[in-house]
Amino acid sequence: MIGESPTNTQNYIGSRQTEPRHEYLAKVLRHFPSVNSHWLITGEGEPFLSAEAGTTTNINNSKNKGTVQNNTGNHNTINNNVTLEECRRELAASQKDNDHLREQLKLKDELIAAKDETINLLRSSYGRPN
């Protein structure tokens, strides 16, 4: 999106954790004006400028991923026009879904344990080892 190779980006944010070039950071800030430059350089403070929180960020992408969508464009290029607030709402909904699924997994494990206990009790009452 900023005109850099995925390898360069991975070197900065992946396991290598190399220092990004100033040209790279400038491209990020030009493409994403709501990113807090102080946070980008130092890691301190909020990642996004609060005055920009309600504004729209245009994301031009050749692939359409995610569930937050307000699309324009054709099948080759899709422009996703979403606000930071919409992303935060989507994240909160996803976290709620994740919590619900974790609870279902916990209940499933409890049901399996109860089933195994029932089978063991039935086997012992008939004097069968299997």
Structure in words:
- The structure is a single chain.
- With 130 residues, the chain is mostly helical.
- It has a domain at 1-52.
- Helices cover 51% and strands 12% of the residues.
- The chain is built from four helices and three strands, in the order αααβββα.
- The chain has helices spanning 6-13, 22-31, 37-42, 84-125; strands at 56-61, 71-73, 78-83.
- A hairpin with a 4-residue loop joins strand 2 and strand 3 (78-83).
- Residues 61-71 have low confidence and may be disordered.
Write out key terms for the chains shown.
single chain, 130 residues, mainly alpha, 3-stranded antiparallel sheet
Neighbour order of strands in the largest sheet: 1-3-2
Q: Please report the distance between the alpha carbons of the first and last residues.
A: 61 Å
SSE pattern:
HHHEEEH
Query: Percent of residues in helical segments?
Result: 40-55%
DSSP strand count: 3
Poorly predicted tracts of residues: 61-71
Inertia-based shape: elongated
Please outline the major beta sheet.
Answer: 3 strands, antiparallel
Structural class: mainly alpha
Strand content: 5-15%
Overall mean pLDDT stands at 76
What Rg is obtained from the alpha carbons, in whole angstroms? 24 Å
Give the count of helical stretches.
4
